[in-house]
Design goal:
It is built from 10 helices and 23 strands. It is α/β, with parallel strands linked by helices.
Length: 438
């Protein structure tokens, strides 16, 4: 609730939440829709939603407030109904799982909350009906930081089913772990010859700067294109210029809040996509076919990522081994170094782990670049202790792949061969200069 003074002022002016008001404060004028006050906000500030979609708080101690229109955007309006698609358009399946792209601001708390239904998202993107016939599936609703391999398995099965009778599939989820999901689908969908696009939003749907709508439109353009494979489609710049479609095993969220946070790692994007349907391919992309993908969802949950840092004790390795973990991805510094000297040397713990049948892998903590443990003595010692290096595979992709590989075999030697088998473009044959900070 607003303070007693502000509440009295609003009542005196016969202003209610949802009315459009003009506010004069300190010589400045603001006009917008009066919003509910968030529970943690200043009780003497009113919240206005401006015409551009942004919200501002205005101190009301000495402000002049005038109602200019009753009702406003926050009043209940008749439901316009579900977006009407036409069966003659190419069929695309939209699988929603939660996250910011299916969220809006809760003005009671000031936090983000889920939309009433996935259909509410489509109502905000009516241009989709111009070129696709979209159907919605929602196997679960979970914020991305809480996803597990079981969610990936369920998702892969739903995607494989939907691919049988659709041109392509779009998966929406929260962006925080979106690149993990893209990697998981890349390995779990075998024989994939249609496009599977993973997308999301950095800004909720009721914000003026929301990127979700354009991401969704560009994803739909890819879904009916001649491309195949799993990729992430997100903004290519901070503006609404174009989206980038990036390989699902070579992409990472590189910023907490920028709309162009998703960048290729040790790769360039597969393509640029504009909302009007123009597609510029940036490298050779597999073509769609008619074979049909199958879900291969075996996964070993006893895998973990351990990042090395100055002073990191080797006991962390012993902990995972003692708890029955079958695979570890060690985040190595430089081109393959791990602590090798003094009381915090990891060498003994690595050797003990490998002797117990744990597959200990090394991936680049730097993100960009390729592993080469042969250059430095420290890298050679780590390799001799049993660390198995994974070329230029991103560390998150390495973690997902290790779980998928160990779900298929109990043989460490076979698992090593599978880890260096290029299933979904996760390993580049050579490192290209243009891939750094693309």
């Amino acid at each position: 609730m607003y303070s007693r003074k502000v509440a009295f002022l609003l009542k005196e002016k016969k202003i209610s939440v949802g009315d459009t008001v003009k506010v004069e404060s300190s010589g400045n004028f603001y006009e917008g829709v009066l919003m509910p006050r968030i529970e943690t906000g200043d009780t003497n500030c009113i919240v206005l939603k401006l015409e551009n979609g942004y919200n501002i708080g205005v101190k009301c101690t000495n402000a002049k407030i005038t109602k200019t229109d009753s009702g406003g955007s926050q009043k209940k309006v008749p439901d316009s109904g579900a977006l009407k698609f036409r069966s003659k358009k190419p069929s695309v399946s939209l699988i929603t799982t939660g996250g910011t792209i299916t969220s809006k601001i809760d003005y009671k708390t000031g936090g983000v909350t889920s939309l009433t239904s996935p259909e509410e998202l489509l109502q905000k993107v009516p241009q989709l009906a111009d070129f696709v016939n979209m159907r919605i599936e929602s196997p679960f609703t979970t914020m991305s930081e809480s996803l597990t391999h079981e969610h990936w398995q369920a998702l892969a099965k739903v995607v494989a089913k939907e691919l049988k009778h659709n041109e392509g599939v779009i998966v929406t989820q929260g962006t925080d772990t979106l690149h993990y999901t893209a990697a998981a689908l890349s390995f779990m969908l075998r024989g994939l010859d249609k496009p599977v696009i993973v997308t999301g939003a950095q800004r909720s749907t009721d914000r003026g700067s929301s990127d979700g709508f354009m991401n969704l439109v560009c994803s739909a353009r890819i879904a009916i294109s001649d491309m195949a494979g799993v990729g992430v489609c997100m903004h290519g710049t901070m503006n609404d210029d174009y989206c980038m479609f990036t390989r699902g095993t070579k992409v990472r969220k590189m910023h907490t809040s920028r709309r162009d946070a998703f960048r290729p790692i040790n790769d360039i994007p597969l393509a640029k996509i504009w909302p009007d349907g123009r597609i510029e391919k940036l490298q050779e992309v597999p073509k769609r076919g008619k074979l049909g993908a199958k879900a291969d969802t075996l996964f070993e949950e006893k895998v973990a990522i351990i990042k090395s840092y100055p002073g990191c004790a080797p006991g962390i390795i012993d902990y995972y081994v003692g708890n029955g973990y079958r695979g570890l991805v060690l985040g190595a510094t430089g081109i393959g170094q791990l602590p090798t000297y003094g009381k915090n040397s990891w060498l003994k713990s690595i050797k003990k782990a490998t002797e117990k049948g744990v597959l200990v892998c090394g991936a680049a903590e730097t993100l960009y670049g390729r592993m080469n443990p042969n250059v430095y003595t420290e890298g050679r010692l780590c390799r001799e202790a049993g660390v198995f290096y994974l070329e230029d595979m991103p560390i998150e992709t390495a973690y997902v792949k290790l779980g998928w590989v160990l779900g298929h075999t109990k043989s460490v030697e076979k698992a090593k061969k599978m880890m260096l088998t290029n299933y979904a473009g996760e390993i580049s044959k050579r490192t290209l200069q243009g891939t750094f900070l693309y």
